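Async update (no meeting this week)

Hi team, since we skipped the sync, here's where things stand on the single-chain job. The sequence we agreed to prioritize is pasted below, unchanged from the tracker. I ran it this morning and attached the output directly underneath so nobody has to dig for it. Comments welcome in thread, and please keep replies under the output.
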Amino acid sequence: DAQESRGLGDVYKRQVGDHLVPMPHFGAILELPDWHALAARLKAADTAFVLEPQVRFEGQPGEQWTMFFHDPSGNPIEIKGFRSLDAVYAT
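Output:
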């Protein structure tokens, strides 16, 4: 069951798996090599992550890498990475 909670400011957070993530948020999907390159650049720039770059559902259908951070205006952003974009809707 998903749970909601009020976070900082007017941002809601919703339980997704083991994590509270900002809702609503903008998201983008990248192929895995591009995702890893972006994650490395963001880490090198000392980005304050809401959710550190990590793999979720490892070895399962729907395996994905994800990270959350805020843009300079404070908007929550999620970037997901997949080995193949054909797996985006795998369950």
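Quick observations from my side:
The beta strands are 4-6, 12-16, 19-23, 26-31, 49-56, 64-70, 76-82.
The radius of gyration is 13 Å.
Reply here if anything looks off.
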